[in-house]
Amino acid sequence: MSLIQSLTHALLSKRGGFAFLASLAILVPLLALSSNIIVFGTWQLNSAAEASGIIIIAAIALLASLNAAVMATSMIIPNGAGAGGALAFLTSACPVCQPSLFLWLGSGFAFLADISVFIGLASIALLAVSLNNLANNKCEGRRGNNGKIVSG
């Protein structure tokens, strides 16, 4: 199956369509808050957010949701999807703002704010590779008790 056929099959199935919409509905506001697109507390759009950062965050949310849809229909968990999703929370759309996660981690991780664009691009790359591997059934892993292939 090609990537387009896998995505079409996943998005048109009930389980895959629901997984896509549910993950998109959860990830968009969560990533918008964690990457400072929306200012926490005032709930307004951050005027310092750059368009390139917003596009990166939108691409991450879309790719992660597509991964969720294909995972829901194929019952396979690819190795790169978790890492790509985790890296998304270290990105920032605002050049002078630090990602919200750094507030909880402490100021020792503040240097990552300077390279958050590259972290976002790495997240996109990992999510795209895992989606491609998932669609082409190249995932390595093992089957769990419920029949899912789990990484590790």
List the helices and strands and how they pair.
Elements: H1 3-12, H2 14-34, E1 38-39, E2 44-45, H3 51-74, H4 81-88, H5 100-105, H6 116-135, E3 142-143, E4 149-150
Antiparallel strand pairs: 1-2, 3-4
Helix pairs in contact: 1-2, 1-3, 2-3, 3-4, 3-6, 4-6
Give structural attributes.
two-stranded antiparallel ribbon; about 60% helix; about 150 residues; membrane; two-stranded antiparallel sheet; elongated; transmembrane helix; transmembrane; 6 helices; 4 strands; mainly alpha
Count of domain modules: 1
How many H/I helices?
A: 6
User: Portion of residues in helices?
Assistant: 55-70%
- Estimated share of beta-strand residues: 5-15%
Sheet with the most strands, sense and barrel status: 2 strands, antiparallel
Distance between termini?
25 Å
Q: What class do helices, strands and sheet pairing give?
A: mainly alpha
SSE order, one letter for each helix or strand? HHEEHHHHEE
Strand order in the sheet with the most strands: 1-2
* Rough outline: elongated
Record field, number of beta strands: 4
- pLDDT < 50 runs, ≥5 residues: 140-145
CA gyration radius, whole angstroms:
16 Å
**What integer is the average pLDDT?**
77
